[in-house]
C-alpha cells in the first residue's frame, strides 16, 4: 500500500493533531461549559494505543505531530509518551499546545523529551479577567510557566489568544507588547462555534482584520509568506525580527485549500475536518486487531477519501458542531 496519505482532493496529509486527554484544569469560556462531564477512562485511548497510532501515521508519511487536549500536561505519563513519539524515525517535529499551568515544572522535561515547539494559550494579562475567561486560572502561574518554557530551549514558543469583544479585545496591543518584548510569536484566533458553551458566540465575534488594524495603530506591519504548517497567516513587525504575529481566521479567511491535517480525538476517532462531524472509530480497530495494523491503515486510507473540501463555519455564532474543542484536539 501507498506509504503516504492523500485525501480525495489531492491534498497530502502529513500533520496529525492528537488529543491526549479531554480533561483540563481550566474551563475556558469558549472551549467548555462550566459544568463538564469528562469521558470514562476506558473510553480514552491508553498511552500505548496513542503511541501505536502515532507510529502508524508516521510510518505512512506524517511528518509533524501536535499533542493537545484538553490540557495535555494533566495526562499522567505524558513526558515518556513524548519521548517515545519524538524518537519515531521519519517524524520531523513533535510539538504541543498547552495552557501553561504546569510548565514551571514540566517545560524542561518536555524539551528534554524532544518536544520542539510549544503553543501556549494566553488570553489576558489581567489576573481577574484571566480568571474569568478560564473560569479558575491563575495568571501568575501561567506567566511563570511561559518564562520557564522560554528558558528551556524550545525552538519556538507561540502564544495563542482567542479574541472576544467585551472580554479581551482591548488587550490586543498589550499582548503583542508582551510577546515581542520576549521574542515570542503570538497568534490571534477567531472563536469557532464548537460545542454549546452557554452563551452566544456571535456577540463577541472579533475578526482578524479588526485585530490587525488595531496592531497597526502601534506597529509597522509587513506581510510574511511564512507558513508553520498550520492555518495561521503571518505578519512581522518592524524592529522585532524574532517575533511573528499570526492570524487564525476560520470565519474571515477560509484556510481549507491548503489543509494538510487530520485530528485524533481522545476516544480514538479520526476527525477529517474540525468543522464537520464525520469521523471513524480507530479505537475499535486498535482493540480488535492488537497484532496487525493493516485493518487500521485500510480504514484510514478509506476515510481520507471522504475528507471534506472545506468547513462551513459562519460568524453568526450558531453552534454548528456539537463536539467541544477539548475532546477534539484544538
Ligand atoms: N489546553 C490547551 C490550551 O488551551 O492551549 C490545549 C487545548 S486547547 C482546546 C487548544 C487551543 O484551542 C487553545 O489555543 C484554545 O484557545 C483554542 N480554542 C479552544 N476553543 C476554541 C474555540 N471555540 N474557538 C477557537 N479556538 C478555541
Ligand atoms: Fe482547557 Fe485549553 Fe479548553 Fe482552556 S482552551 S478549557 S485550557 S482545553
UniProtKB/TrEMBL annotation:
<protein>
    <recommendedName>
        <fullName>GTP 3',8-cyclase</fullName>
        <ecNumber>4.1.99.22</ecNumber>
    </recommendedName>
</protein>
<keyword id="KW-0501">Molybdenum cofactor biosynthesis</keyword>
<feature type="binding site">
    <location>
        <position position="273"/>
    </location>
    <ligand>
        <name>[4Fe-4S] cluster 2</name>
    </ligand>
</feature>
<feature type="binding site">
    <location>
        <position position="28"/>
    </location>
    <ligand>
        <name>[4Fe-4S] cluster 1</name>
    </ligand>
</feature>
<dbReference type="Pfam" id="PF04055">
    <property type="entry name" value="Radical_SAM"/>
</dbReference>
<feature type="binding site">
    <location>
        <position position="259"/>
    </location>
    <ligand>
        <name>[4Fe-4S] cluster 2</name>
    </ligand>
</feature>
<feature type="binding site">
    <location>
        <position position="70"/>
    </location>
    <ligand>
        <name>S-adenosyl-L-methionine</name>
    </ligand>
</feature>
<dbReference type="GO" id="GO:0046872">
    <property type="term" value="F:metal ion binding"/>
</dbReference>
<keyword id="KW-0479">Metal-binding</keyword>
<dbReference type="GO" id="GO:1904047">
    <property type="term" value="F:S-adenosyl-L-methionine binding"/>
</dbReference>
<dbReference type="InterPro" id="IPR013483">
    <property type="entry name" value="MoaA"/>
</dbReference>
<dbReference type="GO" id="GO:0005525">
    <property type="term" value="F:GTP binding"/>
</dbReference>
<feature type="domain" description="Radical SAM core">
    <location>
        <begin position="8"/>
        <end position="232"/>
    </location>
</feature>
<dbReference type="InterPro" id="IPR000385">
    <property type="entry name" value="MoaA_NifB_PqqE_Fe-S-bd_CS"/>
</dbReference>
<dbReference type="InterPro" id="IPR006638">
    <property type="entry name" value="Elp3/MiaA/NifB-like_rSAM"/>
</dbReference>
<feature type="binding site">
    <location>
        <position position="121"/>
    </location>
    <ligand>
        <name>S-adenosyl-L-methionine</name>
    </ligand>
</feature>
<feature type="binding site">
    <location>
        <position position="97"/>
    </location>
    <ligand>
        <name>GTP</name>
    </ligand>
</feature>
<dbReference type="InterPro" id="IPR007197">
    <property type="entry name" value="rSAM"/>
</dbReference>
<comment type="subunit">
    <text>Monomer and homodimer.</text>
</comment>
<dbReference type="Pfam" id="PF06463">
    <property type="entry name" value="Mob_synth_C"/>
</dbReference>
<keyword id="KW-0408">Iron</keyword>
<dbReference type="GO" id="GO:0051539">
    <property type="term" value="F:4 iron, 4 sulfur cluster binding"/>
</dbReference>
<feature type="binding site">
    <location>
        <position position="256"/>
    </location>
    <ligand>
        <name>[4Fe-4S] cluster 2</name>
    </ligand>
</feature>
<keyword id="KW-0004">4Fe-4S</keyword>
<comment type="similarity">
    <text>Belongs to the radical SAM superfamily. MoaA family.</text>
</comment>
<feature type="binding site">
    <location>
        <begin position="261"/>
        <end position="263"/>
    </location>
    <ligand>
        <name>GTP</name>
    </ligand>
</feature>
<feature type="binding site">
    <location>
        <position position="158"/>
    </location>
    <ligand>
        <name>GTP</name>
    </ligand>
</feature>
<keyword id="KW-0547">Nucleotide-binding</keyword>
<feature type="binding site">
    <location>
        <position position="17"/>
    </location>
    <ligand>
        <name>GTP</name>
    </ligand>
</feature>
<feature type="binding site">
    <location>
        <position position="31"/>
    </location>
    <ligand>
        <name>[4Fe-4S] cluster 1</name>
    </ligand>
</feature>
<feature type="binding site">
    <location>
        <position position="30"/>
    </location>
    <ligand>
        <name>S-adenosyl-L-methionine</name>
    </ligand>
</feature>
<dbReference type="InterPro" id="IPR050105">
    <property type="entry name" value="MoCo_biosynth_MoaA/MoaC"/>
</dbReference>
<keyword id="KW-0342">GTP-binding</keyword>
<feature type="binding site">
    <location>
        <position position="192"/>
    </location>
    <ligand>
        <name>S-adenosyl-L-methionine</name>
    </ligand>
</feature>
<dbReference type="GO" id="GO:0061799">
    <property type="term" value="F:cyclic pyranopterin monophosphate synthase activity"/>
</dbReference>
<comment type="pathway">
    <text>Cofactor biosynthesis; molybdopterin biosynthesis.</text>
</comment>
<dbReference type="InterPro" id="IPR010505">
    <property type="entry name" value="MoaA_twitch"/>
</dbReference>
<feature type="binding site">
    <location>
        <position position="66"/>
    </location>
    <ligand>
        <name>GTP</name>
    </ligand>
</feature>
<dbReference type="InterPro" id="IPR040064">
    <property type="entry name" value="MoaA-like"/>
</dbReference>
<dbReference type="GO" id="GO:0061798">
    <property type="term" value="F:GTP 3',8'-cyclase activity"/>
</dbReference>
<keyword id="KW-0949">S-adenosyl-L-methionine</keyword>
<feature type="binding site">
    <location>
        <position position="24"/>
    </location>
    <ligand>
        <name>[4Fe-4S] cluster 1</name>
    </ligand>
</feature>
